[in-house]
Amino acid sequence: MSDARTSSSTEFGEGDRSRPAIARADGALLFDTTGRRYVDLGATHGVGNLGAAHPEVARAIRDQAGQLLVLGSGYANPVRTAFLDRLLGLLPPSFSRVFLSNSGTEAVEAAIKIARSATGRPKIVAARRGFHGRTLGALSATWRRELREPFEPLVPEFVHVAYNDASALAGAVDERTALLLLEPVQGEGGVHVGTPEYLRAARDACDRRGALLGFDEVQTGLGRTGRMFAFEHSGVVPDLLMLAKSLAGGVPIGATVTSSEVEGRFRGSHRSTFGGNPLACAAGLAALEVLTRERLPERAERLGRQAAPILAGLPADRVREVRGLGLMWGIELRDRAAPVLAALEARGYLAIPAGATVVRLLPPLVIAEEDWLGGLSALGEAIAHG
After folding, report:
1. Residue 371 among the catalytic residues
2. Which of 216, 229, 239, 371 is the catalytic position?
3. What φ, ψ does residue 236 adopt, rounded to 5°?
4. Largest alpha-carbon pair distance within the chain?
């Protein structure tokens, strides 16, 4: 008989308790409670860009914990200031204001409120297959019916259009639109890459109608796609940028970044008790230092180039399509992904799905080259032979 007290509190209503119990990490390696070694090909869901226990991030957390754990946002704090300066220094000069929260969902919620307040408009346009979070506002922007239906009615005035379809944007973004919310690469939706032409059309549609363009880079940001930010592939700069996941090296954080001009039009208030706490900011500062010093976006691009021909050579009778950039790949199968994921796990590699038929690879950007190539080889075996 299972003990309810041992049930996961972070996957209410879902979750597979037969999976390994992970106890510690070393770079891109994870070890379960029996000592068995696994290579992380996505087990941290894109949070562990630096691995799940980077020593510099851990040291920053220890040092900060001995000084100041939490502080209200009304007071200045040097580590928060240093973190924000470092983050803004990685972004185009149009970005100058940051709202800090605790997750990607919260970053999206803030963007929705900012856009509605700053424009005085109600309508939010998002994309089919898009995923933006599970709280009511972010869930209203999320496409998947099975996630939405148990909690309806959701927030009104949300419209979904086909992804990578410029003509659909032209018809949906109108004078009532506050925000066009897109992922430059759709992660949970199956790793669909937005074309530069589509993202430029999104920018044009917003400019014509006076709407704000928001990019959800919770999964794609901070080097994942081979650039520091995925929007750099297209050169399209949004008005609102949402970051989270790997931003603080594994410590919960969210960031909604915008311009002084947009903030100047904001009316009302939006706050977070724990947002911008010194502990998360210290971790974030250390994570950004490692990311830039070790040139991890460039490394992700190089390892992605290695992967492309290997993935393209997977058996066509089993694989429908391969999509991705950098160290973010989706392998769409002609059958269900679950058996392939189980076969990978049996071989010591932990990947994740993106829908019922897509195997998603989101390894840490610090993954050893031999482990990355070993994972690709194991994936080929798992697809071909199970």
Report:
1. no
2. 216
3. -90, 120
4. 61
Residue 41's contacts (CB-CB under 8 Å, 6 or more residues apart) are 344, 349, 350, 351, 361, 362, 363, 375
Specify whether the CB–CB gap between 242 and 218 falls below 8 A.
yes
Q: Which of 215, 245, 266, 371 is catalytic?
A: 245
Domain range 17-46+295-385, its CATH number among 3.90.1150.10, 1.10.10.10, 3.40.50.970, 3.20.20.70: 3.90.1150.10
In tens, the pLDDT along 278-289 reads: 999 999 999 999
Q: H or E element: which one contains 197?
A: helix 196-209
Q: What is the CATH number of domain 56-293?
A: 3.40.640.10
- State yes or no: is 216 an active-site residue: yes
Q: Are strands 254-258 and 37-40 parallel, antiparallel or unpaired?
A: unpaired
| Whole-angstrom distance, CA of residue 343 vs CA of residue 336 | 12
- Residue 113 a catalytic site member: no
Pairing type for strands 123-127 and 319-325 reads unpaired
- Per-residue pLDDT of 202-232, as tens digits, reads 999 999 999 999 999 999 999 999 999 999 9
- Supply the DSSP symbol for 51: B
Annotated catalytic residue within 95, 99, 131, 229: 131
Q: What is the DSSP string of 335-374?
A: S-SHHHHHHHHHTTEE-EESSTTEEEE---TT--HHHHHH
